[in-house]
Design brief:
With 725 residues, this protein is an alpha/beta fold. The chain folds into three domains: 147 residues, polyphosphate kinase like (2-Layer Sandwich), CATH 3.30.1840; 177 residues, 2-Layer Sandwich (Endonuclease, Chain A); 188 residues, Endonuclease, Chain A, CATH 3.30.870.10. The strands form four sheets. Strands 14, 18, 19, 20, 21, 23, 24, 25, 26 and 27 form a ten-stranded mixed sheet that branches. Strand 5 and strand 6 form a beta hairpin. The radius of gyration is 28 Å and the shape is globular.
């Protein structure tokens, strides 16, 4: 299918509603947790996709495992707590916490078992390419002395074998803690000893062994330990052993009246480490006595135990994505520097003054965001910088630029969000570094998470102050920006500058923003703005005018928004959505959603940008469309319990780039797409044998963004459509 074919193709024939389903009630929604599991199945399927390089497939397998860890420690942990408390409040789809847990348990166990099947397949393929994951039986005599040296020099000093008896209580096993359980018999008197040997996380999980040129040989750390147990317990014989790994409840609870938010979060982080165990993974065939002791001491129930015949801790396989085998990885891609920035010799302010500029990461380098702030820090005309920080890297150049600016005497304010899940400790460290440099650090609201991505720079230009703004859909994190697809809007539009200032005043001083000119924010009016635009599109359809909505997001589960989309579909609005992960909307059902189609893209880069385009009474693409970028997914938490931004893009080139290039390519993609069917299953689009399917990631790598073009016009950048209406 060509892009033109896609844009002119009719919607699929609607599905008749299944008998017995009532779409006036909860049957109109998919379950959130099961939808998330369906997404992780799609991630795991990429590990089996033969069009993906071998080691990238291994990476997808590791990602699927890491995703499952977080799912259990946050989502399952929350449902478990509700179920144990006897809470029967149903989710949007009508299922109680206990009912959801039963369904999750069944699907998740199947997914975990399939991970092991995929692992075995990848091991065979990797071995054929000279990458061998060995077992004890595969070791050669000459490996023994090498492993003895590794054990004594790098492993033995940090091991802590722990006896289990009345004088030695069962030790605390931290979240993601991986351990040996041992049943030993003393040679001298046949006395039985039970012990635990925590497997240290401070060293790599796979030990690299000497190998011939072009070959790679690895031994799992647990196998190294197993061969050296005699060094730890001389005079004992192993009677039985198993390995196990625990996941603990990792949600944070912070007191509503906390006087010192940083200190409260530090205490909460310590509580997280000791959260209740929500899943125990244990090696298949574990001795019954050891298994009973482990389950009793943690404690866990039978339905919280997963026996694994294979590798425990699949996420650790990411260590084996070898940089020295580029032939088994994606081809190297170097992000572009926008031509317009090059035209201005790297001067970001001059490039932005020329006109608004939208960068599409990672295809255009995130270094431009860093350069924007670094230039501001060293520009004597810049007087103030304000910045939100949700997730940043450990050695963040963004934080360094803010510190440099403060040390040069500029007024610098940073909103650091302490509630960014699993980055709380890192953000506390960053906040202290910023404060030491003289940055005014604020933490926003106790009951609202600040997820907005915005930076403003105030610069003295002649007899006026100009505000340069950056609005993003992704985090200020230069590492993840290499693999997340996100948008960066740079503008010196005075209305957006004023809106940004009002937002920061709200974050730092609780000053309620009034009369925002070109910005909507949650929890105030972002949701109502989206619903209003959807309703306006329905009015266009009812009046006989063209009516279309194109949207892109990571998750869609907010019930009011879904109901608005259903109503628009029933009015005749054609709605095309790209939803990477969770989707609670049921598409393609006659009388409910027959004009809605939903797809998910899972590929080389992680789709992360949030976009929505409204035809505004015209066909899409259209110069008259209303086009927005946002930090918010369409979820209850984003629209009701977070501070988020929705920015309307008015520059014609930026609008064309979003609608005619970015959204059109996403909707036309076939190579990395999964189409959501009315029954909740996902299918890949069918292609002809040998056909090279359109791949939006490849398109973006090969074609620069429209709004970043330079005056020389060195590249003839294709738009995917050319409707001028």
């Amino acid at each position: 299918m060509t892009i033109a074919d896609f844009l002119s193709a009719p919607l699929p024939a609607p599905s008749e509603p299944p008998e017995g389903e009532d779409y006036s009630g909860p049957d109109r929604f998919f379950n959130r947790e099961l939808s998330w599991l369906a997404f992780n199945w799609r991630v795991l399927e990429e590990a089996e996709n033969l069009r993906v390089p071998l080691l990238e497939r291994l990476r997808f397998l590791a990602i699927s495992a890491s995703n499952m860890d977080e799912f259990y420690t946050v989502r399952v942990a929350g449902l478990r707590e509700l179920a144990h408390a006897g809470n029967t409040t149903p989710a949007a789809d009508g299922r109680t916490p206990a009912e959801q847990l039963r369904l999750i348990n069944s699907d998740a166990r199947e997914l975990l078992a399939h991970q092991q099947n995929v692992y075995r397949t990848l091991c065979r393929e990797m071995s054929a390419e000279g990458i061998h994951i060995l077992s004890i039986e595969d070791l050669r005599p000459e490996d023994e002395s090498f492993l003895d040296e590794v054990f004594l020099s790098s492993v033995f000093p940090i091991l802590s074998p722990l006896a289990i008896d009345p004088a030695h209580p069962f030790p605390f096993i931290p979240n993601t803690g991986y351990s040996f359980a041992l049943q030993l018999e003393r040679d001298s008197d046949k006395r039985i000893l039970r012990a635990l040997l925590p497997i240290p996380s401070q060293i790599e999980r796979f030990i690299r062994l000497p190998a011939p040129e072009g070959q790679h040989r690895f031994l799992p750390l647990e196998d190294l330990l197993l061969t050296h147990l005699g060094s730890l317990y001389p005079g004992y014989r192993i009677k039985g052993h198993c390995t196990f790994r625990v996941l603990r409840d990792s949600d944070l609870e912070v007191e509503d009246d906390a006087e010192d938010l940083v200190r409260e979060f530090e205490v909460a982080l310590k509580r997280r480490r000791r959260g209740e165990v929500v899943r125990l993974t244990i090696s298949a065939g574990a001795p019954n006595g050891l298994k009973r002791v482990i389950m009793s001491e943690l404690p866990v129930r039978d339905d919280e135990v997963v026996e694994v015949d294979g590798i425990i801790g699949v996420a650790a396989l990411s260590e084996l994505v070898l940089s020295d085998r580029p032939d088994l990885l994606w081809p190297i891609f170097t992000p572009r520097v926008p031509e317009r920035v090059q035209d201005h010799d790297g001067d970001m302010f001059a490039a932005i003054r020329q006109k608004d500029m939208l960068l599409h990461h990672p295809y255009e380098t995130f270094d431009m965001v860093i350069r924007f702030l670094a230039q501001a820090a060293n520009d004597p005309q810049v007087v103030a910088i304000k910045q939100t920080l949700y997730r940043t890297s450990y050695d963040s150049p963004i934080v360094d630029a803010l510190c440099e600016a403060a040390e040069q005497g500029k007024s610098v304010t940073a909103l650091v969000e302490l509630k960014a899940r699993f980055d709380e400790a890192a953000n506390i460290r960053q906040s202290r570094k910023l404060e030491r440099a003289g940055v005014h650090v604020v933490y926003g609201f106790l009951n609202l998470k600040t997820h907005a991505k915005i930076s403003t720079v105030v610069r003295r230009e002649g007899d006026r102050m100009a505000t340069y703004s950056h609005f993003g859909t992704g985090n200020y994190h230069h590492i993840t920006a290499r693999i997340y697809t996100d948008l960066s809007l740079f503008t010196c539009d005075s209305a957006l500058g004023r809106d940004g200032t009002r937002l920061f005043n709200y974050l730092s001083g609780y000053a309620q923003p009034q009369a925002l000119e070109n910005l909507s924010i949650s929890p105030m009016d972002l949701k109502s703005t989206v619903i209003k635009r959807i309703a306006e599109e329905a009015e266009h359809a009812q009046a006989g005018r063209p009516a279309k909505i194109w949207g892109k997001m990571n998750a869609l589960i907010e019930t009011d928004v879904i109901d608005a989309l259903y109503a628009a579909s029933q009015a005749g609005v054609e709605i095309s959505l790209v939803v990477r992960g969770i989707c609670g909307l049921k598409p393609g059902i006659k009388g409910l959603s027959e004009n809605i189609r939903v797809k998910s893209i899972v590929g080389r880069f992680l789709e992360h940008s949030r976009i929505v385009c409204f035809g505004n009474g015209h066909d899409l693409p259209s110069k008259r469309a209303r086009v927005y970028i946002s930090s918010a997914d369409w979820m209850g938490r984003n629209l009701n319990r977070r501070v988020e931004t929705l920015v309307e893009c008015t520059n014609p080139t930026v609008k064309a780039q979003i609608v005619s290039q970015i959204m059109a390519a996403n909707l036309a993609d076939e190579a990395q797409s999964w189409v959501l069917r009315p029954d909740g299953t996902f299918v890949r689009p069918a292609g002809d044998e040998g056909q090279r399917l359109f791949n939006c990631h490849r398109f973006f790598m090969e074609n620069p963004s429209l709004s970043g073009r330079g005056s020389a016009g060195a590249s003839d950048v294709p738009e995917l459509t050319h409707s001028d209406d």
